[in-house]
Every structure is written in C-alpha cells, then in structure tokens.
Amino acid sequence: MRWRKKAPNQVETYETLVAKQKIVLSQIKSLESDITELEKSTVGNSQTADDDELDSFMLQLNITLQKEKIVRKKKLIQEFKTDYDRLSSLTKIVKPAISGLSDTANFTEHQLKIISEFEQELKKKKSDTDNDTRDRTAEKRQQVHQQMKKHG
After folding, report:
1. Range(s) of the domain holding residue 20
2. Contact predicate 64/139, CB 8 Å
3. Residue 140 lies inside a defined structural domain of this protein
4. Residue 102, in any domain of the structure
5. Number of domains observed in the structure of the chain
6. Which of 21, 97, 117, 149 has a CA between 20 and 30 Å from the CA of residue 50?
7. pLDDT averaged per 10 residues, the chain (length 152)
8. Contact criterion met (CB below 8 Å) for 24 and 84
9. Per-residue pLDDT, 127
10. What's the CA gap between 75 and 126, in Å, rounded?
C-alpha cells in the first residue's frame, strides 16, 4: 500500500500503534456497514417491477455498479485487515512490560501528528475508492445516453 511508506526518522511507539489499530478497525467497521447498506439496496432494487426495457436496463446497470462497489469495498477491507494484523503483531512486540508505562492520553505532539497523517491517508484511500465508483457510474450513464440518442 502507498501509505505504508514511512519517513526514515519516524518512530512508532506502543501508543501510536494502538491508535493506528483503532483507526484501522473503525475503517473496517465503516466499510462493513457500507457493504451491508449496498447489499440491502441491491436486493431492494432487484425486486422492483420492470416497466419497460430502458428502465429494466438502467436498473440492471445500477445493480451491476453496486455489486462492483461491494467487491471493491471487500478488497479494501481485506487490505485493512492485513494492516490490522501487522499492527497487532508490532503492538505485541513493543508492548510495555508494565501496563502503567503506557498511557494513551499522554501523546506527544509528534505522535499525534503521525496518527493524524495515518488517519488522513486511510480516509483518502476510502474516498478514492468512492470517487472511482462515481466516475464509472457517470461514464456508464453517459454511454447509455449516447446509445439512446443513436437509436432514438
């Protein structure tokens, strides 16, 4: 992944790793809820009565796009789960021997910056996936309209 590349002087602490784990976990949960909503809307759309060929075609096109979106989100979840496992392994390695040594409320400014950058990169990645879907939807709609003009 793109965001795995770190600056050579960037130091990860137990606290930053735990914070990143929480961020990744929240992204996974968000994507899973998005998938659930998409699956519900796909099922709802597929049970709608077909009025004419154009409506039927547009409905099938929408269902196909939603299924593609679900697949991309599932792949993204797999990537996040891999990162979560990697972060878990690192967290186990650097976990302080005495639990009192770790207080996540005492982040340094540098640690907060690292966490913030990491969170922004994850949000950008999720946004890029959503934007890609919107672009594909617009392209397919434009193709349909062009075909309608040729035949209409």
Report:
1. 12-97+108-151
2. no
3. yes
4. no
5. 1
6. 149
7. 58 87 92 91 65 83 90 94 91 72 60 78 78 76 76 67
8. yes
9. 79
10. 11
Element (H, E) at 68: helix 53-94
Question: HSE (CB half, 13 Å, CA atoms) of 26?
Answer: 10
Residue 2 DSSP class: G
- Say how far apart CA 128 and CA 109 lie, in whole Å: 28
Q: What angle do CA 37, 87, 24 make, to 5 degrees?
A: 25
pLDDT at 101: 46
CA distance 39 to 119: 27
Print burial letters for 110-142: b (CB count within 10 Å at least 16), e (below 16).
ebeebbeebbeebeebbeebeeebeeebeeeee
**Spatial distance between the Cα atoms of 70 and 75, rounded to a whole number of angstroms:** 9
Catalogue the long-range contacts made by 26-35 (C-beta closer than 8 Å, 24 or more residues apart).
Answer: 27/80, 27/122, 27/126, 28/77, 28/80, 28/81, 28/84, 30/126, 31/73, 31/76, 31/77, 31/80, 31/126, 32/77, 34/73, 35/70, 35/73, 35/74, 35/77
* Residues near 54 by beta carbon (within 8 Å), at least 6 away in sequence: 148
The closest alpha carbon to 76, from 114, 132, 6, 139, belongs to: 132
| Per-residue model confidence (pLDDT) at position 97 | 62
